[in-house]
C-alpha cells in the first residue's frame, strides 16, 4: 500500500525485536517458515530509495498495537477508500470504564443469591423479573456465600462484584498473571480463572 502511494522514504517501527533484526540481516531465521516472509519484505524494500527499520518496546508501541487489533476486526468492502477513524485519549485504560459500582451498594447478584437461598422473590418484582430468576436457577447455584455459574462443559465460574472485578482486571492487564496479551487471549485467560462478571448489559 505504501509503495502504491509513491512514497520513496519509509521508516518502519515495530515491537517484534527478533523480526526487525532478521529483516536487517543481523540474525538468521531459525524457522524455515519465516524465509518466504523475509524474502517478500526484502523485495518490497527495493521499491524505496530509503527504508529504515527501528525497534521500540511494546509498551511504547501501544497505539500501533491498538490500530493493528482494530484493523483485524473490521471488514472493509471498499478497496480505495477507508473512513477516517477518530481517536480519543482517555485518562485511564478502557477496561476501567466497563465495571461500574452498583447504585445501591449491593453486588449485581444480590437478588439472585437471595432467591436461591430463600426461594423468595424481591419486593415489587415484576412477572418478567420473576421469570428471569427462574431461568437463572438452572444455571446458577449457591455454595455457602459463593455464587457459581455452570458452564456447558460442566465448569464453574465464580460470580464477583464490581470491586473485585476491577482488581482482577487490573492485575491481569498489568501482566501479574502473565505476559502482555491481546483482547481475545485476555478474555480466554479470564475464563480460565473461573470468573464471571456482570456489566449490567
UniProtKB/TrEMBL annotation:
Domain RNase H type-1: 4-69
GO molecular function, a single term: nucleic acid binding
One Pfam short name: RVT_3
Name of the protein in its database record: Uncharacterized protein LOC107769146
Amino acid at each position: 500500500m505504501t509503495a502504491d502511494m509513491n512514497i520513496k522514504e519509509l521508516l518502519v517501527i515495530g515491537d517484534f525485536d527478533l523480526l526487525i533484526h532478521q529483516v536487517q540481516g543481523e540474525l538468521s531465521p531459525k524457522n524455515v517458515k519465516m524465509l518466504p516472509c523475509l524474502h517478500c519484505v526484502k523485495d518490497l524494500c527495493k521499491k524505496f530509495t530509503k527504508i529504515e527499520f527501528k525497534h521500540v518496546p511494546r509498551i511504547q508501541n501501544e497505539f500501533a498495537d491498538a490500530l493493528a487489533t482494530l484493523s483485524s476486526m473490521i471488514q472493509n468492502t471498499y478497496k480505495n477508500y477507508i473512513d477516517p477513524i477518530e481517536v480519543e485519549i482517555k485518562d485511564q485504560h478502557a477496561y476501567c470504564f466497563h465495571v461500574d459500582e452498583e447504585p445501591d451498594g449491593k453486588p449485581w447478584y444480590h437478588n439472585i443469591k437471595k432467591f436461591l437461598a430463600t426461594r423468595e422473590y424481591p419486593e415489587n418484582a415484576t412477572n418478567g423479573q420473576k421469570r428471569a430468576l427462574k431461568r437463572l436457577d438452572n444455571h446458577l447455584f449457591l455454595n455457602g456465600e459463593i455464587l457459581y455459574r455452570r458452564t456447558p462443559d460442566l465448569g464453574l465460574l465464580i460470580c464477583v462484584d464490581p470491586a473485585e472485578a476491577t482488581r482482577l482486571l487490573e492485575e491481569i492487564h498489568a501482566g501479574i498473571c502473565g505476559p502482555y496479551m491481546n483482547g481475545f487471549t485476555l478474555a480466554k485467560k479470564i475464563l480460565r480463572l473461573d470468573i464471571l462478571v456482570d456489566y449490567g448489559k
